[in-house]
Amino acid sequence: MEKVFASVITIGDELLIGQVIDTNSAWIAQELNKTGILVKHRVAVGDVWEDIWQALDEESKRASLVIITGGLGPTADDITKPLLCKYFDGKMIVHQPTLDYITHLFEKVLKRPMIERNAKQAEVPDTCTVLKNERGTAPGMLFQKNGTVFVSLPGVPHEMKWLMTNRFLPMVPELFKTGFVVHRTLLTAGVGESFLAEQIKDIEEALPAHIKLAYLPNYGMVRLRLSAFGFDKESLEKEVDHHFGLLKERTKENLVIGEDLSLEQVVGKLLKEKGKTLATAESCTGGYIAHLLTSHPGSSAYFTGSVVSYDNKIKQKILQVPDSVLNTVGAVSEETVLQMARSVQQIMDTDYSIAVSGIMGPDGGTDQKPVGMVWIAVTSRTHAEAKIFNFRFDRRRNIELTASHALNLLRIFINENR
Amino acid sequence: MEKVFASVITIGDELLIGQVIDTNSAWIAQELNKTGILVKHRVAVGDVWEDIWQALDEESKRASLVIITGGLGPTADDITKPLLCKYFDGKMIVHQPTLDYITHLFEKVLKRPMIERNAKQAEVPDTCTVLKNERGTAPGMLFQKNGTVFVSLPGVPHEMKWLMTNRFLPMVPELFKTGFVVHRTLLTAGVGESFLAEQIKDIEEALPAHIKLAYLPNYGMVRLRLSAFGFDKESLEKEVDHHFGLLKERTKENLVIGEDLSLEQVVGKLLKEKGKTLATAESCTGGYIAHLLTSHPGSSAYFTGSVVSYDNKIKQKILQVPDSVLNTVGAVSEETVLQMARSVQQIMDTDYSIAVSGIMGPDGGTDQKPVGMVWIAVTSRTHAEAKIFNFRFDRRRNIELTASHALNLLRIFINENR
Questions:
Q1: What is the C-alpha separation between A178 and B245, in angstroms, rounded?
Q2: Tell me: the pLDDT tens digits for A156-186?
Q3: CA B413 to CA B381: how far, in whole Å?
Q4: Has this prediction a pTM greater than 0.95?
Q5: How far apart are CA B416 and CA B381, in angstroms?
Q6: Domains of chain A and any CATH numbers
Q7: Fewer C-beta neighbours within 10 Å, C or N terminus of chain A?
Q8: Across the interface, which of A14, A38, A318 has its CB nearest the CB of B214?
Q9: How far A369 CA sits from the closest chain B CA (Å)?
Q10: Within 10 A of B369 (CB to CB), how many other CB atoms are there?
């Protein structure tokens, strides 16, 4: 057994001019990691013949697995398939099962006439193993050359994921003899990266060479991740768990959870365990907190809903914030968020509520209430708390920071049995 | 003047194991593009000395500008700065303005004791030009070697963006003599990529070599983008506009807008122009449509708010969906979404409303109502319409598809003056 390294090549001009954010690479890396394959290098190139060719040459020297995504569409800017045909000394042949599938797709599902361009999608180089695509018209292709495995997949995320999961990943044990990768992640809140590093310095320095520690700061929180590689899974896990235990013990004052979960998942887990429910009243976050909570399956067990009161009239009408409050201290105030939180909790009959009101920018700030100023309230059936924050970043980051601080405030509130 | 090519190197193990999605690269590419610099290549490497060194060697051969992000933190996994010091034959010196800023930051803003590790952030190789960071403790650094410019920036997105915008981009005209890049993008809905390609085949074939056409399919919509490079800005724009006009004319039946806008921006623009308002009642999307609308500045002019009725009790209590409807045809039905839409429009007193109810998965599907089945309603003060969709993908994609189809339904509804 040996370490198996992979490279990921993503193809498409849209990646290089920044029109599209590459989410495929992260997903591919995660999935390969689970099989013990380590992504060592990632490259993005445009729809340019020489650049793709060169990337294939270079990456195959670095890695024994090269995953290629994109450039397989039916339009003229997609040149990957003819290029692969030439690169792997093949000639184009029709892959009958794919042609049958495409024909079926157009006749029965899309109910549109199939054109020549669509049928051409069924052509593949005769030097490849076809990974039949049941989510689209572009088949996946697997090639082998000089000891390297090359896998070409469409760039459309849900097609790529389907082909990886159902076609390529099941082939990995046959193709590679690899070791194991073990990750352990913990989430901390309320402490800076530097301070944390000082706190755990001796633990970090005592780590063996095959276990690496990474710091991942994000939105006022820091994740610590141990990554280890080895060939005996059981002893590797035991070893990593030992070091991970030391980290958890040392950071316990700021520890949110010893798993790789997002904050909304941590809050959801907490609510589920306690059999409690939550509603939100959102002004400046415009439904983002509700979106975060409901993006995870099973959230209906603890999340009832939200009143997004973007307009002040809605704060008055549905959330019963009195005119007198809005006209004196205003919408971004302690009184307003507390009333929003209490009202939504009452309307939705929940155990807890979150309410937020603030100025996200770029406009709308004043001297007294600058962009980034946010009031956050959390309530239970017996307690209520409101806090002010000043973020002062751009709109997107202010929204994200407001959401993460609101969720963290609730988490602490619940843990304190308030 | 000549074409100036750039490479982007992102550094960090978290990118290679897929824990973090790289949003920096897309943003950097967009900003460089505006100055006429073309990103030709993008690479991600881990926190590994040899890999970073090799990437610097390789990318400097390809590009006259190499942007490096990440690896500048205060912790032991961040090795980029010592590496750059060695790579560019420098020795570490203290950059006094940065040290003053860090000291100020800890004393006045963070109000935490500054530790040795923080002060070390102010050290830089004496062979660099410092790009002073006013958003964090890691300074940006600019090096020049063998005709290539290297810029090293922190990986934290808001710090990187601030340094690019305020420090590096203003230096571009001095450093490079470059041409101009012109992009034009249009958005279509309701037509497949292949069919569109047939429809515009002759226009595509007649494009000169310096103008490229790209197809960008996403969520049932296809973007067409023309990208051109040249040295005479005025004549280039005129030329691109000519071809763009042909594309718009040819695709007019499916044309949403001739700009690079998201669908929620198109809807927002339409509402603003007409002086109309919108509210949403969201079940299965959990506030995602409201979040999309409010993620753009100025949305308070047309968006009043949302009732996220995740729990059926909220559909009854706030949105007046009768028990009899929920108990017979159920929450995912034409009757339910129409009532949700009408109620939220009335409660929030808006000109239009959107309501959605469906099963996003992975659980909760039945034979009659499978995962991916969604009812969407839109209403105006005089009309109402409901449509059923079947998406059948994963949860995240189902939520995104529901949002984009709901927004598109409203767009058509408004354009038909209903």
A1: 55
A2: 888 999 999 999 999 998 999 888 889 999 9
A3: 12
A4: no
A5: 14
A6: 4-175 (3.40.980.10), 180-257 (3.30.70.2860), 263-415 (3.90.950.20)
A7: N
A8: A14
A9: 17
A10: 17
